[in-house]
Amino acid sequence: MYVGTELPVPQETQRQISVDTEIWTEVIYAGTGTKQPIFHIDMLISLAGRDVNGKYRLLVGSPAYADQILGRPPVEHAIAEIFDDIANNLQNAGFDVIRNPLPITYVDYPEDKLRLWYFATANNSLVQIDENHGNHVWLPTYGHGDWADLASIDAENKRIWEELGFVVHQLTDFHPFAQNLGSVHCIKKYLERG
Length: 194
What we know:
- The mean pLDDT is 90.
- By secondary structure, the protein is an alpha/beta fold.
- The two termini are 34 Å apart.
- It has one domain.
- It contains five helices and ten strands.
């Protein structure tokens, strides 16, 4: 099945901005694909088992929902319309689509006068669906340090998964991974069970 959009997806762009009267370089649209707003599908979509009617459930990230929770105006380069289009396409294909907050944020590198925007994604998680041991999800969190305001996003993602019947395990501070365009699902290779 094709998962993407026919809307134009902007590609990585660098532009000059002013930070404290200094000229900096700002990087936006880092990691975009040609048909997806983030090059790894698991950065924007989480598989969450089936609903009561047997339909596959998908959590699809929503930058607009994150902006609403954070009480800020929409961030234009969060390309929310592309995430919305993908969510609508999946719903039209018969999936049970649940939207979850997916904020865009940035990290500053003062020594390089560089600002890098990235998605603080909880969609890139580890999901266990197990009739014998219960459903569990391991979620990256981002409401730490300079990004303490994102704790409200962490709480909402936790609430959504708990409503779906999952035991939620929140993992501490995944900014270093997200800043490098990955998260927990990207870095795991093997899980030993026993």
